[in-house]
Amino acid sequence: MNKRLLGPLTAGMAVLFAASACGSSSTPAASSGSPASSAGNSSSASAGAGTSLASTAGSSSVAASSSAVASSAPGGASSPAAGGDPASVKLDGAKFTVSSKDFTESILLGKITGDILKAHGAEVTDKTNLKGSVTTRTALTSGEVDMYWEYTGTAWITYQKNTKPIADPAAQFKAVKDADAKNGIAWLNPTAMNDTYAMAIRSDAGGALDNVKTLADLAKLDPKDATFCVESEFASRDDGLPGMLKAYGINSPASSQKTMDTGVIYNETQKGQACNFGEVFATDGRIAALKLRVLEDNLHFFPNYNAALTLKQAMLDKYPGLATILNPVAAKLDNDTMTKLNAKVDADGEDPQDVADAWVKEQGFVS
Length: 367
Description:
Layout: H1 53-56, H2 60-71, E1 95-101, H3 104-119, E2 123-130, H4 133-141, E3 147-151, H5 152-159, H6 169-181, E4 185-194, E5 197-202, E6 228-230, H7 241-248, E7 257-259, H8 262-271, E8 277-281, H9 286-289, E9 292-294, E10 306-312, H10 313-318, H11 321-332, H12 335-346, H13 352-362
Parallel strand pairs: 1-2, 6-7, 6-8
Antiparallel strand pairs: 3-10, 4-10, 5-8, 5-9
């Protein structure tokens, strides 16, 4: 959720997007699987399994409400783009540096962006796979990189310093977008995909653990069974473990909380030795591959984590065609699609660049 992080979505959206957008990025490079912790996933930790989020994360509202977010925005799920015909956008001579966080999903989004920018004539420098959310955001604000895909929940809580997420994903996106406008940061259209945090347990846990279906059920457990494997960022975030334990009244001493890399968490959760419950990301393919069962976030504690390309407003003003060619990408990315793409990397072992190359061609973004 960070990465991943993440869960359900709802509602429609009334957000104004720049009808024009921005210009391209930089040259290829690639990075693949280092764990992440930012509000989206982890380079080895975000993956898709080919199942929809509703079935994987046990929350049918997620996919439905996620769709509402993108479709209600101009140029969203049902519209090709905001600002004209993508084929008419020429970026010859433009140079861009595209970045990402250090988890699979974020890296894939960066590679996809680079492919499309190059297809329109731009020169792209690949700086994907930066470690952590704050590092990547700082690279954007400092001008070290030109663009990367960010998550609404991460921006709202980590950068904009809010403590209470907005339940409606459309309203959450608008609030984040409006707040960042004051910082000179533009957000293009959001994805329907919502890569929120979730907690999972092995399907064959047995005993009293079989009765744990929701996060609220964790409060009823014997504290010795309420053991968690989480990444270091999640262990300290307001929208992570501390806030979750408080919101649900869960008794879990520090000795029952193990911190580890995201990729390790999935395997350890499946084994059930270091912990019974592990932090996972809603669009991670390993949930299904390892037969993990996701607990329902019945209080809707975890924020919405819809992804959108972020860049400086000055860059968007200079290259308004960026929105025209990249908003259609967001319109294609729902939970099921992103989960499948993630799974190709994390479950099948494919290279992120190869997965991105194949997808943009399959979708007709690149010939």
